[in-house]
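Newbie here. two chains, one complex. Structure please?
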Amino acid sequence: MSFSKKKEMAFGIIALLFGVFYLFMTYQIDSKPGMVDARTVPKILGFLMVVLGGVQLFETFKLKHAEEEVGAIDTKTVIKTSFLILTYIAIFERAGFLLSTMIFLFLQFEVLAPNQMKERKHHLIYVLIAVLVAIFVYLSFRYGLKIMLPQGLITFI
Amino acid sequence: MLELFSQGITNVFAPFVLTMMFIGTIVGIIFGAVPGLSSVMAIALFLPLTYGMDPGQGLSILIALYIGSVSGGLISAILLKIPGTPASIATCLDGHPMLDKNQGAKALGVGVVFSFIGTIISIIALIFIAPYVAKIAIKFGPHEYFSIAVFSLMLIATLSTGSMVKGVFSGVLGFAFSTVGIAPVDAVRRFTFGSVELFDGFDILTVMIGLFAVSEVIKIAETSRLEGKTCVAKVDMNVKGFGFSIKEFVQQIPNGLRSSLIGLGIGILPGIGAGTSNLVSYTVAKNTCSEPEKYGQGCIDGIVASESANNASVGGALIPLMTLGIPGDGVTALLLGAFMVHGIAPGPLLFVNYGNLVYTIFVACIVAAFMMLVTEFYGMRAFAKILKVPRHILLPIVFVFCVVGAFGLSSRVFDVWAVVVFGVIGYFFVKFKVPQAPFVIGFVLGTMAETNLRRGLMMSEDSFSGFITNPISGMFLAATVIFLVITIIKEIKNRRKMTNHA
């Protein structure tokens, strides 16, 4: 058992809260006369989630000691990556597939690159890969597979 | 049947399909081999390509990816001592010691050949068992489907690894997400928050791609910058044939056969597959062997047990998928989505209405097995080099394909957002050590369970008795209750033991 007690507890709380939220939303569903309607199954599910969250919390209170997790986690990179992903999707349609993908790929390569792979030649390679992949995917989907990706700002190809 | 087979052969042996399958096999092997890349990612990568193809072509390619990726894990299991996928954990145990004894080529050869044998055995089983299951299943009504769905849900939630509370929660949460949209039978809107896009609920493909592929991309960020260079062992591949003698091969036949059957059986059960079967069959092989002490020291028996079992799970997992529409794991859930993109629902009717497609898939499985055998062994040197592929370049590209795949479903950014939301959920699952598979199965079987519950109740005028008096349905419900009680008793006993020790 190498798992911190805090996390176990956090999981229990999230599960419980989500269950309560889901149950609350369930009671907003239109109800129709009869024993079983569109609310029935969600009610059961919401109830189960609340119970499971409760059991999880109860178990963690009983847990006397739990070891801390080992291994370093690079939180900064995780946050940067999440930010990049969200921005990419947010501009995906407006800026178009080509432009947004090029920018996303290049920045994402840079963010994820291990420290020893950040010399000048690497940056150039990243730019090249980002541009080529974006163009290749765009053209092959648009003309080869007839899947139209958002054109956005770059309208000439 | 023979006529359908020959149609299947014609469909698969078209130059375009063969070429794509060949590429698929290679990509599958690479994704299986490189730790951190998975079968689901390989399929997510190719999925958008198949949207425009006919279903037979598309599924043949995805099958090639699936078979390649399950087998590819053995390469890193032997050369890096890191299993490329959970399917080849047991392969490490004997694979690496053999490498240390300078028998790397032999270990790889045995692994590849028995991967092939396991695949073929399970496909033969698939070809013979599936049509019969479909024949029985075609008579199933809402009562049977409801009970089978409930039974499968219970099985996956309790059998998945880790804490039972988390496994069950994961399944229930998946079920809860399946209730978003228009309700079955009475078409009431649920959890749509006034958004038109939520009326149809979430697409299974967005759930899968997010949960299994996008979450991994986020996870890789945790360690990517801290990584050093991977060291791949050099292996002299100049050996005759596959590196082992005919006598050794004959000796391994009983072991290979038994392990394949274990793999097949585990593959059929929903929720567990190659990731479990390789460990189970390794343990069984070790326990039934006259000299169990040689296991772990580098004997080929261990590799045979692990590799034939994990590949045999492929054919096993396809049986419930094709005959009942029940996916057993992440990859088969993606395949289910791939069927549905083409407007085809897997199930017993598949065998009646799309016999041609069914046999195309069978033939594709066999062809993919041969492609895997040949490319994996003769391309081993190349694959060993690819293990060093920089993941910080590959994963963002995989992510772009995930986005394209989601967008291509119906050209709306909504699906891309859905992928990201499920990616975040998947990442939290990984962080909190909650198994992801029950979520997916809950999502798929949830709709099935609810729809059939409501239909069944309508048939019996709101009385639940129909579910118990129907023999097949009653049997599955009884099995569900019995299994649940046993699991809970076991769980409580385990907890007591743990608290006593603490």
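Moderator note: Residues 2-141+201-227+256-411 of chain B form one domain. Chain B has 21 helices and two strands. Thread marked as resolved.
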